Amino acid sequence: MTNFVRATCLGALLLAGCAQACAADFEVKALNRGTSGAFVFEPTFLKIAPGDKVTFKAVDANHTVGTVRGMIPAGAQPFKSERSKDLTVTFATPGIYGYECFVHIHSFGMSGLIVVGDDLSNMPAAKEAAALAPPVERAKLEALLKQAGG
Ligand SMILES: [Cu+2]
User: Fold this and answer.
1) pLDDT in tens, 15-39
2) Domain coordinates in residue numbering, the chain
3) Fewer CB under 10 Å: which end of the chain, C or N?
4) How far is the CA of 79 from the centre of ligand 1 (A)?
């Protein structure tokens, strides 16, 4: 093994080690009653770094969590949980992610927003997606997008 290859391998190892050691884990709870009202995700708004993980905890039964159509960055994978099941998502791609509970979007607008890193370039698309949501959810998503800087 040449010194160059050795150094390259060591660098890659350090980077990989940092990506794992430096990534943070967050938790978002699906609740029938939260501090901000009935049928909510808490915290509703999260700002995280690329590579961080979020576990959506089905604290109360009968909720789901899934990405809002059109409200994730280009190249990111949509996600969707089973009803009443926890789901852990690693957010690798920077940008704005809207998510919702499919059971309670109409009656309660049960939704939330995660901003990964500092890339807000999908804000216009996110606003368009919010405009298509049912009225209660639309109001909530629009307020969250404002909070994100839109
Ligand atoms: Cu729900």
Assistant:
1) 555 555 689 999 999 999 999 899 9
2) 23-147
3) N
4) 16
